[in-house]
Amino acid sequence: MSQDIFNISIAGENSLIVYFGAEPSPHIAAQVSQTADYLRQSLGDLLIDLVPSYASLLVIYNPLQTDHYLVRSAIRSATHNLQQSSAQEQGNLVSLPVYYSLESGPDLQQLADNADLSIEQVIAIHQQTEYRVYAIGFAPGFAYLGEVDKRIAAPRLATPRQKVPRGAVAIADRQTAVYPAPSPGGWNLIGLCPQPMFDPGATPSMPVQTGDRVRFNAIDREEYLALGGIL
């Protein structure tokens, strides 16, 4: 990774932020994840937290045990290692089942009509892409996945719903996501996923992490219910 692609800035008295680029991409998301993994291993207990985002990584360290000079050096070592190997295929590949239908995806028909596609084509296009987990936010387990094929990209709803069900699979612009819990939301709903996206009692608590890769696989109504899905 060349030195002019990323920069390191002081973000607080005990934190640094690393910027990997101006625009998010699957490659940058993989680099963020790879750098975070390296810092966890190299800094260990010197870290308080790592907060990955679309194209940046916030590094929060214990100022009683280290300083920004040492942490900056570790960051540079991590980014230097990115020069030695491709980060594109880093991250786990996670498969998520989806019950796509008009019953489970109330915006599926409208999205198809707007794209001048059939419902079957929208479903096929949504499944054929391997998405990268760009960031996790909004709610625990809400993973922002990109990038959605341009043919089925859709703007957020003009009026958000007051309640989106848990497991709703949705599209907004060129991102897709699974709602981990009932919540308000303005994304276009195209299906339901029975896989819990956040379980505080489990280890790990989420099936995906920033930098992972995600594929969606269609299941029918019976499979969805058998896997614990709720209609």
Would you kindly provide a brief summary of this structure?
This protein is an alpha+beta fold. It has 2 domains: 7-84, Gyrase A, domain 2 (2-Layer Sandwich), CATH 3.30.1360.40; 93-226, Beta Barrel (Cyclophilin), CATH 2.40.100.10.
> Would you tell me the overall average pLDDT?
91
Level of helix content? 25-40%
Determine the structural class based on helices, strands and strand pairing: alpha+beta
Task: Specify the number of helices.
Answer: 5
Q: Roughly what fraction of the amino acids lie in strands?
A: 25-35%
Distance between the termini: 47 Å
Total number of beta strands: 13
CATH top level of the largest domain?
Answer: Mainly Beta
Which ranges are low-confidence, i.e. pLDDT below 50, for 5 or more consecutive residues? Answer: none
Radius of gyration: 19 Å
User: Mind telling me the CATH superfamily name of the largest domain?
Assistant: Cyclophilin-like
Please describe the biggest sheet, giving its number of strands, its sense, and whether it closes into a barrel: 7 strands, mixed, barrel
> What's the SSE pattern?
EEHEEHEHHEEEEEEEEH
Q: Characterize the overall form.
A: elongated
Which strand order does the major sheet show? 5-12-9-10-7-6-13
CATH architecture of the largest domain: Beta Barrel
**What is the domain total for the residues?**
2
CATH fold topology of the largest domain:
Cyclophilin
